[in-house]
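Thread title: Can someone regenerate the structure for this chain?

I was given the following input by a collaborator and told the matching structure tokens would be attached. They weren't. Posting the sequence so someone can regenerate them.
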Amino acid sequence: MKTYKAVPRKTMLTSALLAALAAPAWAQDAPAGDTPDPATLDTVQVTGIRGSLQSSMNLKRDSQGVVDGIVAEDIGKFPDTNLAESLQRISGVSIDRTSSGEGSKVTVRGIGPDYNLVLLNGRQMPASNLGNGGAGLNGSRSFDFANLASESISAVEVYKTSRADNPAGGIGATINIKTLRPLESEPVISLGLKAVNDSSNDNLPRTLQGSNVTGELSGIFSQRYADDRFGVAFSASHQERDSGFNQATVAEGWATFYGNNTTDGRTLPQPGQGYSDRITNRPGPNDVYGRPQNTAYNVNGVQRQRTNAQATFQWKPTDNVTTTLDYTYVENKVQQQRSELSVWFNYGPGDSTWTNGPVAAPIIYSEDMTNSDVSMGGARLATKTGMHSLGFNVDWEVNDALDLSFDAHNSTAESQPDSPYGSAGVLGVAAFVRGKTTVDYSGDLPIINIALPPGGVQASDALVTGSVFQNSYNKSEVQQYQGRGTFRFADYSALDFGIGHTQVENRSASAIMQRNTWGGLGSPADYADDIWYADNMAKYFKAFSGHSDPRLTGQFLVFDFDRLIDRAAQVGTAADPACPTCYYAPSEYSEDIRTTEKTRSAFLQYRTTFDWSMPLHVAAGVRYEQTEVESNAMVRVPTGISWGSANELNIVYAPESSFIGGRGKYDYVLPNVDLKLDLSESLALRGSYSRTLGRPSWTQIQSGQSLADIVRTQGGSGSRGNPSLEPLISDNFDLSLEWYYGEASYASAGFFRKNIKNFISDTVVRENSGNLHTPVGGAYWNEALASCGGTDMPCIRDYIFTNHAGDPGVNFTGVNSAGQLTGTIEGLPTDPIAGFDITVPANQHSDHLDGWEVAVQHLFGQSGFGVAANYTKVKSGLTFNNLSLGDQYPMIGLSDSANLVAFYDKNAWQVRAAYNWRDKFLNGIGGQGPNPNYTAAYGQLDLNISYAVSEQLTLSLEAINLTDETMRTYSRHTNMLRYATQTGPRYMFGVRYKF
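Best answer:
Regenerated them for you:
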């Protein structure tokens, strides 16, 4: 039975703090519930590591539902320079890193970045991303935390359980980033400087290196005026970082088969057939095995310039009205230069040794080659991401019982190329001198061995081959209006209510300029020898065992990218004239997806406290969401297939593209209940239920269909979307026990379960898209096949050019430097129709996710020492079965994680050592069909030391990835490498002065 007696003062204070701390900023809504007289509350500002942990613990303790967070150690001093790296210290939060090792996106409780909603001061933020490597279309909704500097951040709150007053869209969590508000914080003027040394910059060829030391500058100005009725806050930062990363890759992935497959031309020969006598421990008939398309080493220089600025104005015209106007500016520029050494395989004869099944992978794999290409391409990537957010908010305390607020904002995020070469420019280079090629996949680093002529690869052998220049673009704009209020009843209960309207407009576009001269452009004599210089890959992979293996063929040529492009633009023949425009990204898009998503929402939430012997805090609410989707997509119209080089066939497109439109609509009621039982003053039991939704990615709800430009002998690939997709729906259950036993000290254990339905899975459908005819399997092909005795691609091309030059579809252009015949072979109407693996999203699966979170935080008295640790274990049926080659529906990002932080905070010294670990997880599907890509378990140690010289001056030293860890991604077996990445430690020395 509910009681109506007066609530004790302790309960009133707890309820007030709960309301003040639990709700997201919602652009600084007034706290719901009865607020005690400020005169009765002592203001004690504790800064530093201890103060940050105390504030974070208070947030967790006093919140409605399960909430964790990180609070700035002082104004302008967040625990880590990178927000994502700070968030990974929270139980259940793990991060994805960029190739250069910087934290980028977050996974919460096993739910990937696309299904975690990010807010800035309670407002939904737009997210813009470009495709992999700056190329292609990108449909991700995930927010990239690498774009935000941490200096202006006052706190980050992670809402692991949903509430009615939370915007919908986060199944894993809703993450609210809070920035400085001048009327709510102490006045401050501070300036910070940092010098950054990234050791990875030294581990690059000289032409790819940046500066050994780069700088960071930040400043904050926050003041109050007119008897604290007017406040102004400005913050700004500019950061530059020059770094590098080096990778061993099987970028094209693994063609996978069952051991008894005899229908695909890429399979190993069956026992007793072909070159089967050269295969050791051949995969059994029921085993799954994979053959590589290519293997490569690459070295990458990366330069980044990040600028953030924020201006906030607050005015209180009366005691009960507060207005806030704020503007946030973000610019993040990234440039990358790459050189590589790669070898391509044709699934032809060779020696190989295999692991045991049921998933068999090569230990040693080789193919016979004669005058094949040693590929030494280079790339230039340059992108610029900007964000602008303008918001206005009014908070009105109408009377003692009623608070109202209104908030509006317009925010735009835009990612685009920042170079005339586009967002990604790739220039192929090769020397056609490669003989038998062997790779040992048994170690962390694959060992490539190439049979080369005496002296190895020489500058006099090198020439330009094909090229690809891409122009990718993504823009997302959010217009959001929120009106909300709180009505407090006489029994200290409260009713929260609100309505909202959000419109998101997302545009993702791309264009490509590709010159398919993969057999060689001109001859080596067309290029001056001093364009190139020789280097060796082995010395750039010292963090991996095997880099000094004498079998490793590491010699390659580095070149002047600009100079070589200028020269390639002048090279041509009568059949293939010089093409200066082929080496710049096109300005007109060939693919363009424009999607508008309109959402109307309303919510009610009732909160009360039952003042029993063990007080029970209850919040129950419901949220209604209605979303309308409209998508229009411009797609290229394919007209044919042209075979231009040994390994690749290319789709030919009509000059004009066409637009295709589609619509969708859905609405949902999302209830929630949060219970907190105070078993004692230090012990609390929580239980929560909520229903949340996660919206499909932008490419999943696009109209139209797109095909990959490159087609292989087995066919091609493509994708299409569905604007009528339903969102993921998750019913979430949480139960946790929390013990707050001392100053900034607590222990907690919690169980959570998510029952997810409408799970969106990519089904691969084999289709004859567009009736495109392929030369593979046609009359010319079959005639050549009989003569060559197998699928020896160079032999088949040479035969067709020799015997059918000038016949329909055969365009012979000459002989390259390796003696191979060049030209194109077109698919004829009498040739087979190419099959395409079309990826199609559909709501077709339901499953659950279970997990446990345990955390402990302890201060050792007044010694200054302390420790914080947490561990999260998740389990789900949404996993990938490596023994199945069919469609599967796994959860991306599902993994266990752990953190251990040891610190010292006393007097002038602050020292923090933080170790973060994430277990193996599935990071995506792809690479020659529906193959898994697993990221191996990864742990990283970071160190931060600061010394306060005076109350104004602080010195700091930071080390990131102190033990020089490497990252590894692989497919169905650890020998099936996808990426092995080496970065390096990063060091920062800082000076911070408060005026």
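Helices lie at 9-22, 48-62, 83-87, 561-568, 779-788, 793-804.
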